[in-house]
Amino acid sequence: MRYLMMQKAGGAEPDAQLYADMAAFVEELTAAGVLLATGGLDPAGFKMTSVGDEITVTDGPFTEAKEAIGGFALIEVRSREEAIELGRRFRKIVGDGESLIHQVYGP
Amino acid sequence: MSDLSATVGAVWKQESARIVGGLLRLVHDVGLAEELAQDALVAALEQWPATGIPDNPGAWLTTTAKRRAVDHIRRSRTRERLAPDLARPPEPAEDDVLRLMFTSCHPVLPAEARVALTLRVVAGLSTAEIARAFLVGEQVIARRIAAAKRTLAESGVAYEPSAQLSSVLEVVYLIFNEGYAATSGTDLIRADLCLEALRLGRMLAVLAPDEAEVHGLVALLEIQQSRSAARTGPAGEPIPLHEQNRGRWDQLLIRRGFAAMLRAREAGGPPGPYVLQAAIAVCHTEENTDWVRVTALYEALERLVATPVVRLNRAVAVAFAYGPQAGLDLLDDLRTDPQMAAYHLLPGVRGDLLIKVGRPAEARHELQRAATLARNTAEREFLLRRAAALDVPDERSRLLGAAVTAFLAPLGPATARAYGQTLHRIARLAGDRTPLTGLTAARIAEIFAVSWPDVSPRTWNRHVAAIRSFATWSGSPSLAAALHPRPITAAASAPRPVVSAAASAPRSDVERRGETPLRERALWSLLRESGAKVGAVLTLNVEDLDLDDRSARDATIVWRSATARLLPELISGRTRGPLFLSDRRPGPGRPPAPADLCPETGRRRLSYERAAYLCKRATGHTLDRLRSV
User: What is the ipTM of this complex?
Assistant: First the structure.
């Protein structure tokens, strides 16, 4: 099963150690065949709203910095527990903050 | 507490390969390594409630297990022998994992033991999980794993296995297919096997990055898996590749497959079986499959692994590339192969092709036979539904003239002309308005005797083949019972059926007399001298040829003097494009692919069907028969 893990922005400023730890973590998950895709998100972004026939595009940013999604990882694991475990290791590396994790259905 | 054991379970599945692999280096025994690792798991369950889960639980388990391994070694009598290892600098964990895979996939073990042990110690599945996936009792798997560990220990290959990568690849592919072949019912668990195989393959790709075949296997698995959602219908019935909803293919996995394919190419070397299969899978991701290319890839694959299944798949590809009749011709060889006797896909494929050439009665028979052989319920029902849906008129109630017309209608022009000559004659003499039921084998034999008293054996056999085919189609094969093919050469001792008789004398008089056009003479000569596949020879281009060396395509096709004499005249100054050209320029309706068009003459490449027809008409033989003599 696949899970999309989204990291909220904010938290501690990344230092060299964090970059190194993250790189090692990403490499390990790739080697284990678990990490399918990952990336960081531009906090600006834009928003599309549809009301009736009308579609509006609004440029961001929209929320408190700490509420915006800063990055994502798409992982393929056997169980919810494995997803939690990987999430836990990720949070240990990045420190205080919040992740949202959803199971992905499809394609 | 149950949360904790779930966490420990998840950690174990993610880390077991590295933990057990590291222990294997210390203790040189897979069974013992796994036991020590399990001890560490028990320790985690005892200690983590108090200490909390460590930041890196895998590292904690590894350290704990290694400490136990060292204790064990100190205690054991093997201490002297193993002691130096403790002093060795730690090797990278990757080497440990790779060595563990070589061990659990060691060829000394039977395939099913390799599969079970690999899932246990590399993928970290429990005995119960493996048993569920393979639909057997837990005890069976437990015994299988125990026996495997014992065999490894006794044969002394538990630690320094010969690095047989092909054996590992085979196990990974077996695991994948076990999951992929199942299509319905209790299959969620079995589908998980595909995921396990993918993980193992991806791991292997990192561990052995220079091996093209590893990347080939990964590419193959990723691309096959990308279709998993689209390959069965709502009722679990299989959906053939070309009827699948491509929108449901997983583009992410396809892209990963392509990336793996590129890595395989970078690794270099001649393509092995997995790279070739992956290349075929890549062809099938394209909107319009290049069937000529697929055929060529299957030919290359068949040279490496000539299993009946590969040959069957090649026949399917040939049918798409060169017409259903060409595919059926290839299948004829396979029908006598004992390995194919109980394989439901052979009659299934034949049924499909027979429908396409307009022989519904035989098609129904084949589909029903396929259904009896199919082991999967959904697949069986699907085959039976197709068989039942075929419109098979009861020919026996028809009048002879109408039956002949109906029989000839779907045939290709060449066959229709050849068979028509025989059948129209019979219909004229027996009476167009005679019901088929009024016709007897004796009457047909009489007509033969009157109509063709002094013909050559070859001509006689052609008439016999026509009436036999018609009799089978009409559901009364006994109509041809009184007629027998005649031996073609004086040397042939007993009467033989037409097909094998054709194999005995490929060089016909017609061919020798030189009335045959140059192109045909060159083609037949090349087939005979090179022994190459018809498809491969027809796809030759002028620029592929090395006339001085009498070879083409890196000497995979070589010829001798007769062909060498004919080729220069055939090429007659052309420098590129298809070697064998059709007689006419293509009509505006069906433009050929650029590769099949001669840039200098504007004519298209000679098709398999046309070449087969010309050969059959002139010599009475199939092209393949020419090649094999």
Answer: 0.80
